[in-house]
Amino acid sequence: MTQILDGKALAKTIQAQLTAKVHDWTPQVGRPPGLAVIMVGDNPASAAYVRNKERACDRVGIASFGQKLPGDTPQAYLEGLIAELNADERVDGILLQLPVPQHINDVTLLNTIDPNKDADGLHPVNLGRLVRGEPGLRSCTPLGVMQLLHANGIDIAGKQAVVIGRSILVGKPMALMLLEANATVTVAHSRTHNLSALTRSADIVVSAIGRSHFLTADHIQAGAIVVDVGINRIETSAGQYRLVGDVDYEAVSPIASAITPVPGGVGPMTVTMLLHNTVLSYCQRMPALAHERGTLLS
Ligand SMILES: Nc1nc2c(c(=O)[nH]1)N[C@@H](CN(C=O)c1ccc(C(=O)N[C@@H](CCC(=O)O)C(=O)O)cc1)CN2
Questions:
Q1: Which pLDDT band holds residue 298 (cuts at 50, 70, 90)?
Q2: Which pLDDT does position 5 carry in this prediction?
Q3: Helix (H, G, I), strand (E, B) or coil at 216
Q4: Of 46, 174, 219, 268, which has the maximum CB count within 10 A?
Q5: pTM listed for this prediction
């Protein structure tokens, strides 16, 4: 029987645990944790993700300091806004929703965020901490994948893992987290030769390339663990939109020993790890919670 790695259910469990902690800690600290999500422009998918993040914050008891800005907002304004949020004591986490419009230099902006408030774990200091195996704020999607594997009892040590995709948001931190968990990791990308031979030799395949139904049964060996990070919208014959992953789920799930669905797999874990990172940053910044650090994820 193929194990379905249910991100929706795990996200619910972790969010309930975070809610209980935030409920206990808010009176001790005198304020709730705070998250500022900055969104520039009106990309409809981004707007939906930001709404989901704000709703999730509400459920858990995290205060939102969101800023939705017009698509022509100048870079200098955004740098000023991040400087203000860095200095704002009520804000524990800051996130720049990606992608940003073309005239914005997202790397410069991400580097401006205080590393101790970097809820997305994308600042060079936090990525550097990950490379060095030091504690720090970790990128939400790969952290969510690691939690999903861990919570489902999947042992990573010694396994051959292939990560498809080399983005800073997912592919590179994913490879580092799997390596940290003692997997033997290969990163594949658009220039990789003979991808299917590589993925067929893998015990764990993580796909983060953003191409619908790209990974077929030919790419997977029997018993592999398949993690689908892709979120692709395709038009149905009825003219409606449907969300699919990078993996041809119908063809691959009978072969795999475990697989994440789309929707309901990695996506809900991304949002939950953002909440986790905000609460972790709150814990690390508030002296009253010093003894609680390290108790967030079991
Ligand atoms: N600053 C960031 N920008 C972006 C990130 C990110 O982690 N940080 N990731 C993606 C978008 N994203 C979060 O921002 C995200 C995408 C999808 C989901 C999710 O829960 N998906 C659901 C389905 C939702 C739907 O029906 O549309 C699922 O897979 O079940 C959460 C977060 C790019 N930008």
A1: low
A2: 98
A3: coil
A4: 174
A5: 0.97
For the record, the structure tokens of 71 come out as 């698509």
How far, in Å, from the CA of 226 to the mean position of ligand 1? 19
**Do residues 166 and 191 make contact, with C-beta atoms less than 8 angstroms apart?**
no
**How far apart, in whole angstroms, are the C-alpha atoms of residue 98 and residue 4?**
29
Distance CA 227, CA 148 (A): 10
Distances (CA, A) of 255 to 111, 188, 224, 251: 42, 21, 8, 8
CATH 3.40.50.10860 residue spans of the chain:
26-125
| Rounded Cα gap, residues 105 and 85, in angstroms | 18
Q: Please report the ipTM that was assigned to this predicted complex.
A: 0.96
Which whole number is the average pLDDT over 230-253? 93
CATH 3.40.50.720 in the chain is located at 140-266
Q: Which fold has domain 26-125?
A: Rossmann fold (3.40.50)
* Bridge partner residues of 118 (DSSP): 94
The second-level CATH assignment, the architecture, of 140-266 is 3-Layer(aba) Sandwich (3.40)
pLDDT at site 294: 72
Residue 259 annotated as binding site: no
Q: What confidence tier does 117 reach under pLDDT thresholds 50, 70, 90? A: very high
